[in-house]
Hints:
Blueprint lengths: L3 E6 L3 H12 L3 E7 L3 H11 L2 E3 L2 H6 L5 E4 L6 H10 L3 E5 L6 H14 L3 E4 L6 H11 L6 E11 H7 L5 H16 L4 E9 L11 E8 L4 E10 L8 E8 L3 E6 L6 E2 L4 E2 L8 E2 L2 E2 L2 H15 L7 H20 L3 E2 L4
Parallel strand pairs: 1-2, 1-4, 2-3, 4-5, 5-6, 7-10
Antiparallel strand pairs: 7-11, 8-9, 8-17, 9-10, 11-12, 13-14, 15-16
Amino acid sequence: MNKLRVGVIGLGFIGELHARIVYELPNAVLVAVSDVREDVTNKIAAQFGCCGYIDYKEMVLAGGLDAVSITLPDELHEEAAVFAFEHGLAVLLEKPAAKTTDSVKRIYEGADNAGSRLMIAHVLHFDPRYAQLRESIKRGELGEIVHMYFRRTNPRANAKRLNGRASIFYYIGVHDFEMMCSYSQSRPIKVYCRKVQKVNAYIPSEDTIFATIDFADGSIGVVELCWALPNNSALGINTYAEILGTEGVGYINIQDQGISIITEESVLYPDTLHWPEYNGMLLGDLKEELAHFVTATLSGVPYIVDNRNALMAATIIDACFESIRTGFPVDITNI
Length: 335
């Protein structure tokens, strides 16, 4: 059986998960990993019996790779992705693709110019709840979309941990902006956004944002993001989606994950879908995402994730920042 030879660039929390999943996939080989932290690189390379590099460019130039998974900080995505394209590699690029619309466009141009393949790692496409609702919309079961509402909330500990290094828009919100564009039967044309900054003002970071998006077909979307929940809320993943159409409505409501673990010290709702570990394996939708990338790259079939929606999500986020700054709606007709 042909196996895809993969390297992982960036070994933070998500990058380490990518490395382990690639190592465990039957049709992939984890050839190498790279991180600027030498101790981390050496630890992961030893754990999975692969090569380790401090400089990802050296890893790419060493050869022996078919693809890379890039899980670097957002602002480093463009340079790493374009370098990989220039050396003939397929790229799985963690969300968000980049922090600006212009940077996303340059990444896409790099892939096109090199004739390389690119998949943006929007994991909700591999969450069966979001994926099944998308299929229902595509089959026309809800009719013409009237409105879409997405909510994603986190405890305030996430904002504190990131300490201003990432905005709520990029860290959690890009999931919902991208999926809204994926669900939509039209294109976004106008964005109005407001924010509240009280709990996390010391960082400084947003507490809550509300964004309203107008679409060309007359439908409207709302995204609510918050990472100011009390830390003892224990709901690390708390999301909601509502899609109303002329013929029906679809709901997603994720709170307690279906399992509670209660001790004298805490109440926990462990993740049951994204990257749960049981029976000695990492499972869940992150594994499904990487498995799809590997299989589709080997076979040459299209990726499930449409990169146009990642570009639209970046454009909406750019417009949200501008709307917050000016206090007015922002026209994005010309994206």
